[in-house]
């Protein structure tokens, strides 16, 4: 009886060992890296604004031009960085420059005053992360108010003091330098252009033209 029981136990152990040898052992599957998380950010910029000559045509026929000194630019934005190089933002900005000279129907009018552009944009930027340094390109569309406050000093009592809202667009690029985990120093160039506006002069004539500017600025971008 004892020998029979031992034989049964031995046979069971041998069978179990053979079955276990046939089992395949699988290595645990490695989880893939998670997709980069995005974050909101805020930015503020200031710099130089070079408004290009404002060429206009009067409703009574003559053409004119106004040129400007280098002015200044200020803007801020709130946006979202998707973590894959793409970011979108809403931007509000302002630029201002003093008049340098002006002509009307070929005559020097002695223009004195300022021009300004106030704008709101929806922008998209794409950056190329090089490890702490990120070149980027992009642009946006929106609306702008072009305002001109010009006195024609060679012709007392004449000038243009008016503003009008129109569409606007911009393209640009720059480089971002990481200062800390969530703070970057950004330098960039933008070209901004507006649609046509018709500005009324002191004689109630309409003067139609469009504006554009090159902007060089520097600022801080803070992620949160």
Give an overview in words:
The protein has 224 residues and is mainly β. The chain has a single domain, classed as Porin (Beta Barrel). It has 1 helix and 13 strands; from the N terminus they run H-E-E-E-E-E-E-E-E-E-E-E-E-E. An 8-stranded antiparallel beta barrel has the order 1-4-5-7-8-9-10-13. The chain is elongated, with a radius of gyration of 33 Å. The N terminus is likely disordered.
Describe this protein with a few key phrases.
single chain, 224 residues, mainly beta, Porin, 1 helix, 13 strands, elongated
Largest sheet: 8 strands, antiparallel, barrel
Q: Quickly name the level 1 CATH class.
A: Mainly Beta
The Rg value, from CA coordinates, equals: 33 Å
Strand proportion, as a percent range, falls in over 45%
Tally the structural domains: 1
Figure out the total of helices: 1
* Overall average pLDDT: 88
Question: What are the low-pLDDT stretches, counting only 5+ consecutive residues below 50?
Answer: 1-35
Secondary structure layout plus pairing:
Layout: H1 2-22, E1 39-51, E2 54-58, E3 63-68, E4 71-81, E5 86-104, E6 107-108, E7 111-127, E8 133-152, E9 159-178, E10 183-194, E11 197-200, E12 206-209, E13 212-223
Give a quick precis of the structure.
The chain has one helix at residues 2-22; strands at 39-51, 54-58, 63-68, 71-81, 86-104, 107-108, 111-127, 133-152, 159-178, 183-194, 197-200, 206-209, 212-223.
């Amino acid at each position: 009886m004892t020998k029979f029981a031992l034989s049964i136990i031995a046979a069971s152990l041998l069978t179990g060992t053979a079955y276990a040898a046939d089992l395949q052992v699988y290595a645990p599957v490695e989880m893939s890296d998670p997709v980069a998380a995005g974050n909101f950010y805020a930015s503020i910029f200031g710099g130089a604004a070079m408004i290009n000559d404002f060429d206009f045509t009067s409703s009574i026929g003559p053409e004119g031009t106004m040129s400007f000194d280098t002015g200044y630019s200020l803007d801020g934005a709130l946006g979202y960085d998707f973590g894959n190089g793409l970011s979108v933002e809403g931007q509000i900005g302002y630029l201002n420059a003093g008049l340098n000279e002006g002509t009307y129907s070929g005559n020097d009018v002695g223009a004195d005053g300022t021009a300004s552009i106030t704008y709101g944009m929806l922008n998209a930027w794409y950056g190329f992360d090089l490890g702490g340094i990120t070149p980027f390109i992009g642009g946006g569309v929106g609306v702008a108010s072009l305002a001109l406050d010009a006195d024609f000093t060679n012709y007392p009592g004449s000038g243009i003091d008016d503003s009008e809202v129109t569409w606007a667009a911009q393209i640009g690029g720059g480089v971002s330098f990481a200062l800390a985990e969530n703070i970057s120093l950004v330098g960039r160039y933008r070209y901004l252009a507006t649609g046509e506006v018709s500005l009324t002069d002191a004689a109630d004539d309409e003067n139609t033209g469009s504006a554009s500017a090159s902007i060089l600025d520097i600022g801080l971008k803070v992620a949160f």
